[in-house]
Write a structure and sequence with these properties.
Length: 72
């Protein structure tokens, strides 16, 4: 099991990554056509899903109090 200090850092970094990906999606939406935006958005959602499932979930399973407010 990862220690708590490392787990806290991982959760924070993953939240920052998610924030940046959401920002990228917004830029793409503003600067591309609908089909292109949908393609990029699908990829971003795919990446975010894996980050949540394969990185964040194991950490939060061990340290539930580190879960972000929007964690389901």
């Amino acid at each position: 099991m990862m220690n708590r200090n490392a787990s806290e850092k991982i959760v924070k970094l993953m939240e920052e990554v998610a924030e940046r990906l959401h920002s990228a999606a917004g830029l793409i939406e503003q600067n591309s056509d609908e089909d292109e935006h949908e393609t990029y958005l699908a990829t971003i959602e795919y990446v975010l899903g894996y980050l949540r499932q394969d990185v964040m979930k194991p950490v939060i399973d061990n340290y539930p109090d580190l879960a972000p407010d929007d964690w389901e």
